[in-house]
Specification:
Elements lengths: L2 E5 L2 E4 L4 E8 L8 E6 L5 E7 L6 E3 L7 E6 L4 E6 L8 E9 L2 E4 L4 E6 L1
Parallel strand pairs: 2-11
Antiparallel strand pairs: 1-3, 3-8, 4-5, 4-9, 5-6, 7-8, 9-10, 9-11
Length: about 120
């Protein structure tokens, strides 16, 4: 059974940092690209970042480029999102996801990130 468990969210002041983690199980982790999405109140869930199975390639939504870094540890079946220089507009529930074909498979409950001004 595929499981994705996010952690690391919290309340932080603008300009601060947080590191999100996502523990994966139930599938061969290294064979899948992984991504992070976020959903702010009243808004749709949006793409944040993606990393290939090997970790050799990453991509980011424009507003987080230069501030967020996605990484993975295939030995630990974990994907991370390091978030620096956080802004109030980064406030959202953050979801870890597995890419399956052209789609993303959402399994986790998400982790809340709140950035105060």
């Amino acid at each position: 059974q595929v499981q994705l468990v996010e952690s690391g969210g919290g309340l932080v002041q603008a300009g601060g940092s947080l590191r999100l983690s996502c523990a994966a199980s139930g599938f061969t982790f290294s064979k899948y690209a992984m991504g992070w999405f976020r959903q702010a109140p009243g808004k749709e869930r949006d793409f944040v970042a993606r990393i290939t199975g090997s970790g050799g390639s990453t991509s980011y939504e424009d507003s987080v480029k230069g501030r967020f870094t996605i990484s993975r540890d295939n030995a630990k079946n974990t994907v991370y999102l390091q978030m620096n220089k956080l802004k109030p507009e980064d406030t959202a529930v953050y979801y870890c996801t597995r890419q399956v074909g052209v789609n993303y498979d959402f399994r986790g409950q998400g982790t809340q990130v709140t950035v105060s001004s």
